[in-house]
Amino acid sequence: MAFPKHFYWGGATAARQVEGAWNEDGKLDSTMDHLTLGTKNQPRRFTDTIEDSEIYPSHKASDFYHHYKEDIALMAEMGFKMYRMSINWSRIYPNGDEDKPNEKGIEFYRNVFLELKKYNIEPLVTISHCELPYHLSKKYDGWLNRKLIDFYMNYCQTLFMEYNGLVKYWLTFNEINNAMVHGKSFIALGIQSIKDKSVSANLNENIDPDEKQKQYQAVHHKLVASAKAVQLAHSINSEYKVGCMIGGICRYPYTCNPDDVLLSQQERQNTFWLCSDIQIRGAYPNYANRYLNKHQIHIQMEKEDDEVLRNGTVDFFTFSYYSSGCVSCDNNHKKTAGNLIFGIANPYLKTSQWGWQIDPQGLRYILNEIYDRYQIPIIVAENGLGQADKLEADNTVHDDYRIDYLREHIKAMDAAINEDGVDLIGYTMWGCIDLVSASTGEMKKRYGFIYVDADDYGHGTYNRYKKDSFYWYKKVIASNGTDLD
Length: 485
What we know:
By secondary structure, the protein is α/β, with parallel strands linked by helices. It has 14 helices and 16 strands. The two termini are 15 Å apart.
């Protein structure tokens, strides 16, 4: 069975992980530019100043800023129909609160969009991908301050006007729910007044109640900003399509114990559905009010917020999906790693090199859950396998493990579309060009079809090389998903 005729096959990156050029052409530092290199076992560290003795992976990343024409040509060679990318806010508004944008930043992204247009590749643009100008974090305490809504709207106004006719599909925030999942959510929110600014995945149940209060207040401000951005986009161009982007959390009850089943349901409500229910249905759901009351979280809202949320619902749903986990009322179980959270290990699944459980059927399962709930078009905006690839002497990379991973997930999408009736319109595989890992900052945790010759410390030629998966994905796209061998 083939995928829909106009299915958007493609790949995805984020400016903070691929772009580099962190202080060139008028750009100033973002919150991401203050994160040091970490490892699987050592969290990244946030530093208030840029320290000479530390490595900051985002400063050079994959150097897309100077290689974008080459990289887009490689995407076109694979046959990409869509490229999901993000704009770095601090490249457009270096401090975030200026009246006028940085023209060099405007020009860079216009050139990127024109290059994509040359190859008929549709951009899917994330307006804010878990970063913001550091000045907004330092001066205003990030998204905890309601003033950021106005700064964000000024930023959106510039993007929607400057790139009118070049971009159709927009995402307001990347994984907007991740601040409700992480115990340490500084990067998502930029709140200077929280105590822990390291980066690691950890459920937020055990954090200080005051910090949890700040998290939910800040996320509310982002939800209001998102709704306002949707309305603004539609007022500027009725053809604009604006979506939400949710961090995909697929966690099963560990046993058939009703307590495990109820816990699984509640966790999905509070970590996966909460933000998308507000962004799609236009109001806080009852279970959210129950959770907020239980944890004595009191969100300050303005009188117009209810109306703004009601009138600013999104047009389509996107999400990330890498792995799954389990939950149980019994905490004495082996834990496993993941994109957003640690879960209880599922004995029926294998794990990746970084300990993430590989579960293609989970993708089909969660696609059905999403579509049954909302009945709007869906894009799988992130899905991929991080692995320590080896560049051979003949400049090839034999990544059969990545092909195997992607093949099974594409089969799951096929079944969701053709057997289950899910309106899935696109798939942008994560990290189509090797980039620095968000969680650890490592380059050696590679996802791409395109190998970037750089190590964790920024050493290398930064030349691009095609992996075996490059040619495989080209064949998949050319056959519209029917040739997966």
